[in-house]
Amino acid sequence: MKMLKRKSLLLMVVVLLVSLVSACSGNNNGGKSNAGNTGASATPTPTVEATADTAEPVEITWWNFPNFTALDGEVGKFEKQIIAAFNEKHPEITVNLEMLTFDGGPEKLNVAIATKTAPDVIYDAPGRIIDWAKKDLLASIDDMFTNEVKADITPAIIEQSSVDGMMYMFPFNTGPFTMAVNKTLFEEIGALDLLPLDSEDRTWTVAEFEAALKAVKEKAPDVIPVGFYAKSQAGDQGTRGFLTNLAGSTFLNDTNDSIALNNEGGVAALEWIMKASKDGLLAPGAASMAASDHNDLFLQGKMAFAINYSAVLKTQFAPNKASDFEDILLPYPTVDGSAPKLEPFLGGLAIFNNEDAAKVEASKKFIDFIVNDPEWSVTALKQTGGLSARNSITGIYEGSEYAYSELARKFITTPPTIADGYAEIRTYWFPALQKVLLNTSSAADALAEFETLGNEAIAKGKAARTSN
Amino acid sequence: MSTAALKSKSRRKFKREWLTSYLFLLPALSFFIMFVAYPMVHGVYISFFDYNLTNFKFIGFDNYVTLFKDKNFHQSVINTVVLVLVAVPIVIGFSVFAAMTIYKKHELLRSLFRGIFYLPAVTSVVSVTVVWNWIYHPNFGILNYLTGLVGMKPIFWLGDPNTALMAITAILITTSVGQPIILYVAALGNIPISYIEAAQLDRASSRQIFTKIIWPMLMPTNLYVIVITTINTFQCFSLIQLLTSGGPIYKTSTVMYSVYEQAFSFGNFGLASAMGVFLAIIIGIISIIQFKFLGSDVEY
Amino acid sequence: MKAHIEAKLGTKYNNSKNNKVKKKSFLKNLTPGNVISMILLSMLSIIFIFPFYWIVTGAFKIQVVATQIPPQWFPLDIVWDNWVTLFKNPVTRWTFNSFFIAVTEMVLICLVSTTAGFVLAKKQFPGRRIIFTALIAAMALPKQVILVPLFTLLAKLGWINTFKGLILPAVGWPFGVFLMKQFSQTIPTEILEAAKIDGCSEVRSFVTIALPLLKPAIGALAIFTFMTSWNDYFSQLIITRSTDMMTLPLGIATMQGEYRTDYGVMMAGAALASLPMLTIFILFQKSFTQGITLGAVK
Question: What pTM was estimated for this model as a whole?
């Protein structure tokens, strides 16, 4: 009897405890939250602006996409080394690292921003960063740029890092996106002369390109001549670069306020794609292929040309090649063989404005360390495999393809990523390509529809900006 | 103790009994209110706002108006309905067939088959999609290799608007028959064997036995399986996110995927919540219809 | 007393009695139709086994072999490279996280559901119907619908990327309460009444009479909860942030790059994530089956 009483008491206590935990938890504001909470952070931070030389302890959060090649195959290892090196100079700043992934990462950022738990430092590409800057979510880092530094960066890159002349991203690693060819395959089929490798800048015409594709189809029937993909947004700079050069047009007009691709050239380019698909020159099933599938085919030697490549990717892919073939960078072909327009990939760092001056200051110090530290900036750049966004820093890498990559920088144009509403424009591009590839609509109709939707997105983006 | 004394005692105890009941409920209820009920109400609330990365503005029913105008959302609703109409009957048919086949077999054999059909359901959805992505792959997929052996042309299962939704449905079916089969085997085991033996003595054909005796006895299980499978199919999301991202040309986008895409890819939380509310209402209506329609001849 | 309860509970769900098929009917079972359906079923079961087989074998193939046509049905040279690559990631930490989250959820859900399910099934009190209807209604709703408001709430509490944020919301999900209510209904009211007349307190009759009877149910619920949590992907994706808080499914998903997918490593990860579940399922198939069956019976 007594036993039972005790047992029942015990149970009551447990039940009560559990309910207390659940009922009262609303009153505590979480012990240690990693997110840059506004106002609710556990440590009281001074609201007065911290001067540069106070050693007041600050905690910042850094979110990073896999921009650096994983050191020893371990995700986040290199980032931790950078933080350790930074802490030797600034022991007062604690940097919490969070690694993002390409799938799920963008979603995570959206949710974090909407719930006011954004990180302090983000290392990403201008596509998203500039979109945030326009929405007034970032802290300006204009004071980090001297005139000397600005002069050392190509205007196209400055444009991608700023909004209304105000810098929001510190550009770090870059390089042109190009095509790639399996040179070894062309040697085997004795068609090396069809590739534009004798000129230094390797420019070529669509006709020459077609001849090379036909040679592959004829002499290596098991190999897909050229890849294409339209499953999702990932890697869309490849399809964009390929088609705009084929069309002899730009994606957007000069002032980035309307879609420019819907012209004769654009329709002709899409029709070329349709025809190539029918003639078996283009990868079958392209509509459902993702950029990664397309690269896989190339790396396995099952495809002669890849349309989304760069010196960086070449380095990253090296261990994944099925056989030891030589992959060579080539510019996209143009109708008349004139200079191609290449989009750069660009990575850079930005700071979310979490309304805490001390955190913004600390974040600036951290970014400055990564991009300007004499020793670590070079190490970090090498880890990305990219070229420096600064014109004066060259010759970091060995090899012919890096040399070509440096040379091809002269073809770089401003990409459409800086347009208002760009994030939304992207979401209409791959469905338009799918329609063409699947023959569910004509090239002209698909482009016209894309133009309408794209222009609406730009208008919406502009309206959102002015209302802010 | 006299009965009168007992009665008065029980009346006094009555209130105390309530108190104990509430105490027993309290923990579960507090969790439920905090993490399910409150967010649900809050979700309805934000569906009336233009809520995105930078705005939080009351706009009344505008999100709902946007929904009804959005062609891609229409497509998603159609896809969801197709998915339910195709998957649910197949799941029921297959489960009944499998259960009928194995329920009289040796215990070991029964366990083995139950296990096999439950396998895809216990495997993490991430793992399942990785494999199926590979099976369906246009260039090095096993399926195209096999169909190629018998002389068929390669099909881009997940990339062709005509086959993509069916390809997804096939995977969904493999992951949803495990539980129904277990239920049907149990239900069949509960049918008194004397009924069937009596019918056999009356020279009833096995088809008659099935339609006249077995099927009516399975009715309560049918109801449960249909409701559960319908709800699960409505919530089909991870497969689509990991395999097709709703493509090609929105042919595999479902309502659930639209909710995710709007909220997390585009940051339109208000619109996404409106879609969620819409979905919840639809699921509610369907569940009620199923109970009314199928539950009428089920005795509880 | 005990026999009395068993008599009440036993017959309803005991297949064994009915399934003692006589020899005569066993021979009758070997009709052509029966043989055909058995063969058909065995062929269909290949579709169910194959993905699993492919995960396990794929984990031991290098990328080139894994994606070759014609496929290598059986890995000719077994390589461990994928596992080496996999374990360069904090896989042990991810596995621990998956386990810790699943076990904690399991314990908490079993605790709160058993008491709540019991009183919902066996006690009369004002508001009972409303509470139960609310719980059932919530069960039909997709979790993703409440994810945005739930996330906002967790952010306010500062629970993002914490175990609290990963575990506690799942405890609110009413499935457990529903299951335990279904089970509790099988407890004969007479026994509880008798205990009351004997002067047992509510709590005491719950502990001494109901709990022992509910043991198998709690076991089934525990397995269910563990499995759901282990295989969760979506809510964990949104609530975790740092690598060290990731669970196994999330960790596997991170191995998908933007420009290429390493199938072999993903397969190794998938195998690692699936094996514990499979083992649990094989070991506890009985409780499992019982849980699934009882949840469905009104």
Answer: 0.78
